[in-house]
Amino acid sequence: MAQPAMDPKAARKALLAERERLLAELGEPIEAPGQMTYGSQAAAATFVFEQQRDLALRDRSRLDLHKVETALRALDEGTYGTCVTCGNPIAPERLEAIPWVAQCIDCARKGGAAPR
Question: Which residues form the domain of 75?
């Protein structure tokens, strides 16, 4: 197994901070539309658009949380910093920029899906 390319303590700290941020974000309620009055169709349409945007962002946050938790498990298992597609080490700069990344830059560029 390749050694982690990033200090495990620093990686864990960054991942835990991101997990806390995502959990807080996911805990925020999304407002439901209120009573609509005559002439407020434009306002209602704007509200529905914003609500849909918030739901899409929440889905993205759930996906990111899954990636963060997967990276934390990889740290525990000693596989953090190893590309899940090719098995090569992930560049330290890439891990510092995105600590939960699962693929090296070459595999990510090829568009190879990471195994689940």
Answer: 8-26+47-110
Are the CB atoms for 38 and 14 separated by under 8 Å? no
Identify the CATH number of the domain in which residue 93 sits: 1.20.120.910
Within a domain: 93? yes
- The answer to whether residue 76 is domain-embedded is yes
Give pLDDT tens digits along the chain (116 positions): 444 457 889 999 999 999 999 999 888 876 666 665 656 777 778 878 888 888 888 999 999 999 999 999 999 999 999 999 999 999 999 999 999 999 999 999 998 555 54
- Please tell me the total count of domains within the chain: 1
Question: How many angstroms separate the Cα of 11 from the Cα of each of 50, 64, 73?
Answer: 34, 16, 12
Give CA–CA dist 91/4, Å, rounded: 9
